[in-house]
Structures are given as structure tokens and as C-alpha cells.
């Protein structure tokens, strides 16, 4: 009798954990231009805007023992580069 009860408790705890995971991406990143416009070949200053879901956070480049540093991949239009 102990084994079925133990399995039932395990399944109930897993179901609660699965329900706690939100759908979609918890962090949305976008670039914001500081000037009047962007043009290929010109230098521009941009700000990184992060929209972070409630109860989520990001790490800096030194995340410590338990995290990963934030990394971003951008799909840039032809003629643009970042660096």
C-alpha cells in the first residue's frame, strides 16, 4: 500500500510543477534607437530593452554558480552589423 501512495504523491507534485511553468518566452528583448534613424554604414547608439515576466530575472555576464550569462542573437537586416 505504501508504494501506490508514494507514486500518487510524486505524480501530484510533478503536476503542480508543470502548471507553474508559464507559456512563451519569459524575457523579450528589443533594441531602441537613440537617434533620428538608422542607416547602413553609420554608427548608431542603441539601448537594450528587456521586458521580463513577473517572478523572472536575468543574469549579468558573471552569473555565479547557479546561472548562465545572458546571451542574445540578433537577426539584422542586410548591410547592418553589431559589435
How do the helices and strands line up, and which of them pair or pack?
Layout: H1 2-20, E1 27-33, E2 46-52
Antiparallel strand pairs: 1-2
> In order across it, which strands form the biggest sheet?
1-2
Total of helices: 1
Provide the helix percentage. 10-25%
Q: What is the molecular shape?
A: elongated
Low-pLDDT sequence parts:
none
Q: What is the structural class?
A: alpha+beta
Arithmetic mean of pLDDT: 73
Major pleated sheet:
2 strands, antiparallel
Number of strands: 2
Order of helices and strands: HEE
Gyration radius over CA: 21 Å
Give me the oligomer status: single chain
What is the first-to-last residue Cα distance? 62 Å
Percent of residues in β-strands? 15-25%
Give a description of the structure.
- The N and C termini lie far apart (62 Å).
- The protein has a domain at 22-35 and 45-59.
- The chain is of the alpha+beta class.
- It has a two-stranded antiparallel sheet with strand order 1-2.
- Helices cover 23% and strands 17% of the residues.
Keywords:
1 helix, alpha+beta, two-stranded antiparallel ribbon, 83 residues
Describe the structure concisely for a colleague.
23% of the residues lie in helices and 17% in strands.
Amino acid at each position: 500500500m505504501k508504494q501506490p501512495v508514494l507514486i500518487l504523491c510524486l505524480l501530484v507534485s510533478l503536476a503542480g510543477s508543470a502548471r507553474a511553468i508559464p507559456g512563451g518566452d519569459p524575457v523579450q528583448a528589443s533594441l531602441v534607437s537613440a537617434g533620428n534613424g538608422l542607416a547602413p554604414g553609420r554608427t548608431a547608439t542603441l539601448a537594450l530593452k528587456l521586458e521580463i515576466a513577473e517572478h523572472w530575472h536575468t543574469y549579468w555576464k558573471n552569473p555565479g554558480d547557479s546561472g548562465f550569462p545572458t546571451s542574445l542573437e540578433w537577426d539584422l537586416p542586410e548591410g547592418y552589423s553589431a559589435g
